[in-house]
């Protein structure tokens, strides 16, 4: 039986609809009265785990799930040993550098040497500024990173942006984009190579749905 790791949060609804389109029904996770973290499809051909988005690649890498759905941003930050098999196209957002509207800096390259940049995406932020050859101090924050510039603790933030509404409401503006992110289907590498439990059939069904937009 194939096990799929599904992410709590913004990607869950689209993930469930995608699997429903290929005949796997995990919609019980959408029932707010349901507290189960593992359910089986009614056909008993697959089961799903409901986990934090950051944990999806962990379950797949360690083989507790053969497949998973997760944002590219998580994969970039964690760099897990998983197979990236399909760009699912939904959950579009971008990793951006933002500053206060009143800031004089309108480009990452204009930020001060050894200035502070707050982010929960520490690895991505560090790689980005290293590539620019701009020495900055990355301040790890795992709550509302927008408070970094607001309180004066940091000159800028690196964070995931979807509509930009949160930035605007907090008086921040984007000045650069590191990369764009969408949801990805990932697979356990060995299971993928060996086609364990027929996961390649599921992957091809998903790929076909994505390509046809059905």
| Dominant shape | elongated
User: What is the domain total for the residues?
Assistant: 2
Query: Could you spell the SSE succession in H and E letters?
Result: EHEEHEHEEEHEHEHEEHH
Which residues form runs of ≥5 with pLDDT under 50?
A: none
Number of helices: 8
CATH class descriptor name of the largest domain: Alpha Beta
Which architecture of the largest domain does the CATH hierarchy give at level 2?
Answer: 3-Layer(aba) Sandwich
Distance between the termini: 25 Å
Count of beta strands: 11
- CATH fold field value of the largest domain: D-Maltodextrin-Binding Protein, domain 2
Structural class computed from helices and strand pairing: alpha/beta
Say which CATH homologous superfamily of the largest domain is assigned: Periplasmic binding protein-like II
Helix fraction, binned, reads: 25-40%
The radius of gyration over CA amounts to 19 Å
